[in-house]
Design a protein that fits this description.
Layout lengths: L1 E3 L5 E3 L11 H12 L5 E2 H9 L7 H16 L4 E4 L2 E4 L7 H14 L3 H12 L14 H27 L3 H14 L4 H13 L3 H19 L5 H11 L25 H13 L2 E5 L6 H9 L5 E5 L9 H11 L11 H9 L4 E6 L5 H11 L5 E7 L9 E4 L12 H6 L1 H13 L10 H10 L4 H8 L2 H12 L3 H4 L14 H9 L4 H9 L7 E2 H8 L9 H10 L4 E5 L2 E5 L2 H9 L3 H23 L7 H10 L1 H7 L6 H15 L2 H9 L4 H13 L6 H10 L3 H18 L2 H18 L2 H18 L2 H18 L2 H17 L3 H18 L2 H17 L3 H17 L3 H17 L3 H17 L3 H17 L3 H18 L2 H17 L3 H17 L10 H17 L1
Parallel strand pairs: 6-9, 6-10, 7-8, 8-9
Antiparallel strand pairs: 1-2, 3-5, 4-5, 11-13, 12-13
Protein name: SARP family transcriptional regulator
Pfam families: BTAD (PF03704), HTH_77 (PF25872), Trans_reg_C (PF00486)
Keywords: DNA-binding
Length: 1006
C-alpha cells in the first residue's frame, strides 16, 4: 500500500489502483497519521485534531469508531494501537513525502550536477498539488504542509542551481517564471532565474527582474538585496558570466559508513540553517553530533570544518580565532590587529558555513568568538557541543539517541527501529552473514534499549557480536564498560570506549556537579525536583543549590529534563546512570539508598490518603510515574513493610497483582498477610477460605480489620467462595458503619450488590448499587462509581432496558479511561458487546468485544480477556461457527476450573453444550449441560440454573425425549419468573429453537 500527501490525500494498492477512503473524518485521521508515519500519536492528540472544541460525548469511543472505519478501508494491520495512541504502521518510503525527503537527502550528497539534477527531478515529479490539499487549513496539518511547501521550494532552488551548472539556461528560465511570480521575494529562487535569463542571452529581462526585486524588497520590507544578488547584478551589467568561477569547496572527511536512522534530523538541521545563522547541535557524548553535522554540511557549496576537540581547556578567544583562521587558510596581514578582528574582516567577504565541532570544553571562548564572526552577513555557524553556547541568536537543536523498540514489540516493529537498523548494519560488517531475524529480534532490541540507542555504544556493541553472539552480549551488558571497548583505532581516544566518552564529560564538571550527578543514580526512571533536592543534597551540596546544578547538568547533556503534568522531571540515560553509580563509594551509596526509600515511603503514604476520593486521578498518575522508584524503595528492608502498606490499594486499583503478591508475601504482619491472601485469590490462585476468615478475625485495629474484611470479601466473591465473601462483606459493612466511613460503606454495598445479583435478589442488588453509587459520588471516588455503575448496567440488561445498560457501561468506560483503570475499561467494552449481542448486532458485538480483548491482552488482564473471548464465542456460536466458538471457550473452561469459578464454568459449559447440540452430538450435549447444571447449582444463581435446564431440554429433545425436554423448559421458565429475571428477547434464540423443534416433534408424533 502506498500513500500520497503531496497533493490531495490518496491511497494506492501495490498495483497502483486507487483505494477509496470514505468519510471526511476518517480521511482526516489518515491525514493526521501520515504526518508522522510509523510514529505513535496519542489518543488525546487525535481527538483534539479531529474534533477540535466540538468534542463528542464519548471522545474515546468516537475515536475508536473512526479508527475501525479506517482499518476497514486500508487494512487492519496498518493502523496499530500502541499506548498511548495509534500509529500508521508503514515505512517512510511508502508515503510520497517520505520518498521526497529521501530523494532530497540523496541529491544533496551527490556532487555531480547531472546526478543531482536527476534525483531532484524525480523528487519534484512526486508532487500532484499543494501538500495535504483539503487539510492544510486544519491546525494539525498546517505546519506540516508549510514545511513540505518550503522543502519543495528549496528543492526547486537546488534543482535550478544544478541545471545552471549544466548550462541549461533557456529551458530553465521558462520553467522558473511562474514559480518566481508566486514567490517574488524569495532571493535564492530569484537569483537562479536571473542567472538563467542572463545565461540565455536575455540580460535585459534579467536586469528588469533585479530592479523589480529591489523595489519590492525596499517597499515591503525596507531591505536591500543580499550581497550575492548585488554581485550578480554587477556581473550582468559588465556582461560577465552569471556564475563566477567557483572555488572548490573545503574538503570534508568522506563518510566511511552509511548514516542510519538520521534522515529526519539531517533534513531538520538543513531547514534550520536556511533561516537561522547560528544553530547549535547538542546531545550526550556518542550520540553522533559530528556525523550529523558533517552530513548536513555536505549539501553546502562553501563550508569549513573546524575541529576543536584537541584544544586545551584554557584556550582563549584570540587563540581560537587563530585556529579558525588556519582552517580557512587566512594568512596574518601586515597591520597589527587582533586575530578575532582579522578573522571577521576576511569573513565579511565570504559566503560560508562554519562547522565548529566539539565546543563543550572551550565553550567560553567559542561563545565569545561566534557573535563577532556573525557580524559577517553571509556567514552561518553550525556548532556541535554537549552544552549550549548561551549566546544571543542561538537556535538549539538537541540530537536524541536513536529510537529503540518498545518491550514486546513485534519483529516488524523491531526492524523499523533506527537503533536496530544501525546495529544490524554494523554487526553485519563485523560478522558477515549476521542479520536480525525473528529468533534474535527481541535480544537485539534489548541490547539497543540497554545502551540507550546511543550510536557510538551501538557501534561498539555490534563489533562484539562476532565473538559473543547476541545472547551473550545482552547478558554481559550489566558490566557494559568492560564490554563496550575496542573502538576503531582511527577514532579519537575519547570515542574508543563507552567509559572514555563519559570520562570526557565527567572531567568537565565541578565537584558539586559531580556530587549531584552521581547521586541521581539512586533513582529509577528519573525524579522530580523535590525528590532531587531531598536525596541529592547533603555534605558539600545544599538543597537550595540542587536546582541550579541540575540545570547545568541538563545543559551539559548528562541529565535529561522532561516536562510532565506534575512539573519537571529529571533523569539519565542508563549508561550515564551506570557510570555514575560506579562513582559512589559504599558509604554514600547506603546513605542514598535509605534517603531514597524514606522519601518515597512518605510520598506513598501521602498518596494513599488521596486514592479514595476526588484527587484519585492525580495521585494515581503520580504513583504511575514513580513506579520504578517505588519498586527500588521496596528493596530497603527497614522500610519495606511500611511502604507495602501504603501501596496496597494502589496495586489493587492498577491490577498489579503479581507485584502486590511479591511485596506482601514476605511480611510477618497480619494485615499484610490478609491482603496477600486476597491478592492471591484475585490472581486466580486457590486459597483456603478458612485462612481468609482467620486472618480477618485476628486483626485488632478496627479500620484495618474493616478494610481487610472488605478486600477479602471482594476477592472471595469474584474468584473464591461466595458464602465466605458474604460473611466477610457483612462484617466489613457493619464495621464501616460503626466507624462512620462513608467510602467504606459504599465499597461494601457494591460488593453486596454483586452478591445479591449472583443470588438472584435483583431488587436488593438494585437498592445496594444505587445507594453505593450515591455515596461514591458524594465522596468523589470515580473508581467506586465505575464499580456501582457496572452492577446497575447488568441489572438494566436483565430488565431488558438495553439503552440504560449501554449508558451505564459507556459512563464506566469514560471514567475508567480517565483513571487508566484498564481492567475496568476492558470489562465495560465487553459489557457493551454483550448489549449489542442481545440486540442482534453481531458485527457491532464483535467489534466491542475485540476492543475489550485488546485492552485486556495489552495489560495482561486474564479475567478481562476471558470475558471478551467468551463474548466472541457467544457471537460465533449464534452465527453457526461452532468450531470457532469451541476453540475460544475450551481454554477458558480449564482456566475457570483452576480456581473453582463455578459461575464462569457454568456459562462456558452451557455454550459448549448448545454448540454440541446444534452439531447433532447429543451425547456430548447431554454431558456438558449436566456439568453446567451442577456448576450453576453451586453458584446459587437461578439464571445460571435456568440456562443449564434449557440446555438440557435441547439435549433431551435430541435424544428423543420430548416430554422430558418440555418439563425442563417449564422448570427453567418458572425459575426465571420466581427470580424476577425473565429471559430477555435477545437471549431467547436457543429457547425459541428448542420450542419450535419440540412443537414439530409433537406434531410429527401426533
Amino acid at each position: 500500500m502506498r500513500f500520497g500527501v503531496l497533493g490531495p490525500l490518496a491511497v494506492w494498492k501495490p498495483g497502483g489502483d486507487p483505494v477509496v477512503v470514505p468519510e471526511a473524518r476518517v480521511r482526516a485521521l489518515l491525514a493526521r497519521l501520515l504526518i508522522d508515519p510509523g510514529r505513535v500519536v496519542s489518543a488525546d492528540r487525535l481527538v483534539v485534531d479531529l474534533w477540535g472544541d466540538a468534542l463528542p460525548a464519548n471522545p474515546s469511543g468516537a475515536l475508536q469508531t473512526v479508527v475501525s472505519r479506517l482499518r476497514r478501508a486500508i487494512g487492519g494491520g496498518l493502523v496499530a494501537h500502541h499506548p498511548p495512541g495509534y500509529r500508521l504502521n508503514v515505512p517512510l518510503d511508502a508515503v510520497d513525502s517520505g520518498r521526497f525527503t529521501a530523494l532530497l537527502g540523496r541529491a544533496r550528497r551527490e556532487m555531480d550536477p547531472a546526478g543531482r539534477a536527476a534525483l531532484l527531478a524525480e523528487a519534484l515529479d512526486l508532487w500532484r498539488g499543494d501538500p495535504f490539499a483539503g487539510f492544510a487549513d486544519e491546525p494539525f496539518a498546517g505546519s506540516a504542509a508549510a514545511a513540505l511547501a518550503e522543502q519543495r521550494l528549496a528543492a526547486w532552488e537546488d534543482y535550478a542551481e544544478a541545471r545552471l551548472r549544466l548550462g541549461d539556461h533557456a529551458a530553465l528560465a521558462a520553467e522558473l517564471r511562474g514559480l518566481v511570480d508566486r514567490n517574488p521575494l524569495r532571493e535564492r529562487l530569484r537569483a537562479a532565474h536571473l542567472r538563467a535569463l542572463h545565461g540565455a542571452g536575455r540580460t535585459t529581462e534579467a536586469l528588469d527582474g533585479y530592479r523589480q526585486l529591489r523595489r519590492l524588497l525596499h517597499d515591503e520590507l525596507g531591505l536591500e538585496p543580499a550581497a550575492e544578488l548585488a554581485a550578480l547584478h554587477q556581473r550582468m551589467l559588465r556582461g560577465e558570466p552569471s556564475t563566477p568561477p567557483s572555488t572548490p569547496p573545503t574538503p570534508l572527511p568522506p563518510p566511511l559508513t552509511e548514516l542510519v536512522g538520521r534522515d529526519e534530523a539531517v533534513a531538520d538541521l538543513r531547514t534550520l540553517l536556511r533561516t537561522h545563522r547560528l544553530v547549535t547541535l547538542t546531545g550526550p557524548g556518542g550520540v553522533g553530533k559530528t556525523r550529523i553535522a558533517l552530513e548536513v554540511a555536505r549539501a553546502e557549496h562553501d563550508v569549513c570544518l573546524v575541529e576543536l576537540a584537541g584544544l586545551p581547556r584554557e584556550t582563549a578567544m584570540d587563540a581560537l580565532a587563530d585556529v579558525v583562521a588556519a582552517a580557512l587558510s587566512i594568512r596574518e596581514g601586515s597591520r597589527p590587529r587582533s586575530p578575532a578582528d582579522r578573522l571577521v574582516d576576511v569573513l565579511r567577504q565570504r559566503r560560508l558555513l562554519l562547522v565548529l565541532d566539539n565546543c563543550e570544553h572551550v565553550v567560553e571562548a567559542v561563545a565569545a568568538l561566534v557573535p563577532r564572526m556573525l557580524r559577517a552577513p553571509d556567514v552561518r555557524v553550525l556548532a556541535t557541543s554537549r552544552e549550549p553556547l548561551g549566546v544571543s541568536g542561538e537556535h538549539l537543536r538537541e540530537l536524541p539517541p536513536l529510537d529503540v523498540p518498545e518491550p514486546g514489540a513485534s519483529t516488524a516493529d523491531v526492524l523499523r527501529s533506527g537503533a536496530v537498523r544501525l546495529f544490524a548494519a554494523r554487526a553485519a560488517a563485523a560478522s558477515p552473514g549476521f542479520a536480525v531475524t525473528a529468533d534474535n529480534a527481541e535480544t537485539v532490541a534489548t541490547i539497543c534499549r540497554r545502551i540507550d540507542g546511543i550510536p557510538l555504544a551501538i557501534e561498539l556493541a555490534s563489533a562484539r557480536v562476532r565473538v559473543l553472539g547476541t545472547t551473550e552480549l545482552a547478558e554481559r551488558l550489566h558490566d557494559r564498560f568492560a564490554v563496550l571497548t575496542g573502538g576503531p583505532r582511527d577514532a579519537p581516544p575519547r570515542q574508543r570506549t563507552l567509559r572514555a566518552v563519559l570520562d570526557w564529560s565527567w572531567d568537565l564538571l565541578t565537584a558539586a556537579e559531580r556530587a549531584v550527578l552521581r547521586r541521581l543514580a539512586v533513582f529509577a526512571d528519573g525524579c522530580t525536583l523535590a525528590a532531587a533536592e531531598a536525596v541529592c543534597s547533603g555534605d558539600d551540596v545544599r538543597s537550595s543549590q540542587v536546582l541550579d546544578l541540575l540545570a547545568r547538568l541538563v545543559d551539559r547533556s548528562l541529565v535529561v529534563a522532561a516536562h510532565t503534568a506534575d512539573g519537571p522531571r529529571y533523569g539519565m540515560l542508563e549508561s550515564v546512570s551506570a557510570y555514575c553509580e560506579q562513582q559512589l563509594d559504599s558509604r554514600e551509596h547506603d546513605l542514598l539508598r535509605h534517603a531514597h526509600a524514606a522519601y518515597y515511603t512518605a510520598l506513598a503514604e501521602q498518596a494513599a490518603a488521596h486514592l479514595r476520593g476526588p484527587d484519585q486521578q492525580r495521585w494515581l498518575r503520580r504513583l504511575d510515574t514513580e513506579s520504578g522508584n517505588l519498586r527500588r524503595a521496596l528493596g530497603d528492608d527497614r522500610g519495606a513493610p511500611r511502604l507495602t502498606r501504603a501501596l496496597m490499594w494502589y496495586w489493587f486499583l492498577r491490577g498489579r497483582l503479581a507485584e502486590a503478591r511479591r511485596a506482601t508475601a514476605a511480611a510477618g504482619d497480619t494485615t499484610l498477610a490478609a491482603w496477600h491472601t486476597g491478592f492471591r485469590q484475585l490472581a486466580g490462585e486457590q486459597a483456603d477460605s478458612n485462612t481468609a476468615l482467620r486472618l480477618h478475625d485476628a486483626l485488632t485495629d478496627p479500620r484495618e480489620r474493616a478494610m481487610a474484611g472488605w478486600f477479602l470479601g471482594y476477592a472471595a466473591t469474584r474468584f473464591g467462595d461466595l458464602p465466605v465473601g458474604e460473611t466477610l462483606t457483612r462484617a466489613a459493612l457493619a464495621a464501616f458503619e460503626d466507624l462512620g466511613d462513608r467510602w467504606g460503606i459504599a465499597a461494601a454495598l457494591t460488593v453486596r450488590a454483586l452478591q445479591r445479583h449472583v443470588r438472584g435478589d435483583l431488587g436488593g442488588s438494585m437498592v445496594d448499587a444505587e445507594q453505593s453509587r450515591t455515596l461514591f459520588r458524594e465522596t468523589g471516588d470515580r473508581w467506586g462509581q465505575v464499580q456501582a455503575g457496572a452492577v446497575l448496567g447488568r441489572l438494566a440488561e436483565i430488565a431488558g432496558d438495553y439503552s440504560a445498560a449501554a449508558a451505564w457501561h459507556r459512563e464506566g468506560v469514560e471514567l475508567a479511561e480517565d483513571l487508566a483503570l484498564w481492567p475496568d475499561v476492558s470489562m465495560r467494552w465487553s459489557e457493551l458487546g454483550r448489549i449489542a449481542l442481545l440486540e442482534g448486532d453481531h458485527d457491532r458485538a464483535d467489534e466491542l468485544h475485540e476492543r475489550g480483548r485488546a485492552v485486556a491482552v495489552e495489560h495482561g488482564d486474564l479475567a478481562g480477556q476471558e470475558f471478551a473471548e467468551v463474548g466472541l464465542a457467544l457471537s460465533a456460536r449464534r452465527r453457526g461457527r461452532y468450531a470457532e466458538a469451541q476453540a475460544l471457550l475450551g481454554p477458558w473452561l480449564e482456566w475457570n476450573r483452576t480456581f473453582e469459578a463455578d459461575n464462569g464454568a457454568a456459562l462456558i459449559l452451557a455454550e459448549l453444550g448448545f454448540a454440541a447440540e446444534q452439531r447433532g452430538d447429543g451425547d456430548a450435549a447431554l454431558k456438558l449441560h449436566t456439568q453446567s447444571l451442577a456448576a450453576a447449582r453451586r453458584t446459587g444463581d437461578p439464571r445460571a440454573v435456568a440456562l443449564a435446564l434449557e440446555g438440557l431440554a435441547g439435549a433431551q429433545l435430541l435424544a428423543g425425549q420430548p416430554r422430558r425436554a418440555k418439563s425442563l423448559l417449564g422448570a427453567a421458565a418458572r425459575l426465571r419468573e420466581s427470580a424476577g429475571a425473565p429471559l430477555p428477547a435477545g437471549e431467547r434464540g436457543d429457547v425459541n429453537r428448542i420450542e419450535a423443534a419440540l412443537a414439530s416433534s409433537v406434531s410429527t408424533r401426533a
